[in-house]
Amino acid sequence: MTFDVNNPYFRTKVLTASPEELRMLLIEGALRFLREGRGAMEARNYEKLHESFSNARNIIIELSSSLKREVDPDLCGKLEAIYTYVFRLIVEGSFEKSLAKIDEAIELMDYDRETWRLLLEKLAAERSSAGAGAGAVGAEAVGAAGPGYRPLSITG
Fold first, then answer.
1. Which of 27, 102, 113, 126 is the most buried (most CB within 10 A)?
2. 59: Cβ–Cβ under 8 A, 6 or more apart, which residues?
3. CA-CA distance, 23 to 149, in Å (whole number)?
4. Angle at which helices 19-43 and 99-130 pack, to 10 degrees?
5. 150 — alpha (psi -120 to 50), left (phi > 0) or beta?
């Protein structure tokens, strides 16, 4: 799927997505921009590198700021530390033109995506067996479900 915000299919997907799906879209968007930036770094296209890594950093900030610390402070603290580290890898990798640091950021976000995918599968199984009201505390803590959810923004 393309992440072009002007694409009507993508816009519809974002507007109709559940909070859990929106978080997955953010993670996938961060990965897309990290890979784009990595390719631009290899091609020495510094304008594209800056644009891609800026978008990736903005998404990492959104992922971190949308954590609900009141639901699970320990889990949110650990996730915030990971997102802070990924953010730092992007900044340093961009500045130093270090593919190794960008590769590490991509690897961590790939792991985050896979973990989130597994959680989404678990939530879907719980909801199908217990009704639509079932949810996991972990999902609520990362801003995916529950009362007080604030919408996420996707730009770029």
1. 102
2. 26, 27, 29, 30, 33
3. 12
4. 160
5. beta
User: What is the identity of the amino acid at 141?
Assistant: A
Q: Residue 75: left (phi > 0), alpha (psi -120 to 50), or beta?
A: alpha
- pLDDT tens sequence across 19-74: 788 899 999 999 999 999 999 999 999 999 999 999 999 999 999 999 989 989 99
- pTM, two decimals, is 0.77
SS3 content of the chain, % helix, strand, coil (to 5): 75, 0, 25
pLDDT in tens, 113-156: 999 999 999 988 888 887 555 455 556 666 654 434 344 433 44
Task: Give residue 16's pLDDT band: very low, low, confident or very high (50, 70, 90).
Answer: low
Q: How far apart are CA 77 and CA 138, in angstroms?
A: 12
At CB < 8 A and 24+ separation, what contacts does 16-19 make? 18/144, 18/145, 19/143, 19/144, 19/145, 19/149, 19/152
